[in-house]
Amino acid sequence: MDKNATDYSRLSTCGIWNVLWTAPCACVGTGRGRGRQAVKRSLDRKTRIALEPRKQPRQQRSSKVVDRILDAALVLTREQGTKTPTTLAIAQRAGLSVGSVYQYFPNKEAILLDLARRWLSSFPEVIEKRIKVAPPTNREEFRQEVRKLFIDTSRLYLENASLMPVIEAISGNADLRPIQNEYDDQIIALYAAWLQHANPALEDKIASRLGVLMMEVGHVCRLVGLKKDRRTFDLIEDDVETMWLALVSPYLNLD
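^ TetR/AcrR family transcriptional regulator, sequence as received from the core. Prediction below:
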């Protein structure tokens, strides 16, 4: 057993991978995440060795290989539901040798963790898109902007519903929590910027506080909805949207 495998076995005692591999799994697209270096520094060293990709792609060809690996894992986990694909199966679906996969990832757990990171990294882009449009001039225009944001973010949850146990497991593990914290901080800052886009006079502290509530309430409620049926998820989405509007509208000075 190599050093990476030894370090990985230590993680199993934390219980996180029992959650990851007995819960349904799914994956995301292959856009590169941000802030990896900051996350990398804050992780426990042994955890980082066991789970970080072995080789960061520096050339376009290498990046394409990594994308093929992650795309293959995406397809397999969606097809297999609760059954975790093996590294061999991922390699075969990607049209690669197992050795080629191991050049970039020490184990299948590292592949899943990278996919979770990439899912988290997809949210900042969605929120930034709403900041780039013209600011709303009245409450109805702001309501429409909220609806557009909900459509985009709901799609991210629905298309990757079975990845949520992975995210929850990351949140509950001290060694891995910095991975989610990195993106949570970005999302909160972007929600605050979005509100200040609608009301430039909104104080930073207030905008940040509202951003925390928007992120936390939205995420928890969606997790609840995903554990139910699609109709329940849609109803919860509508309720969260109503809560958001009631929460932030008094701070935006919109007619």
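The chain is about 70% helix and 0% strand.
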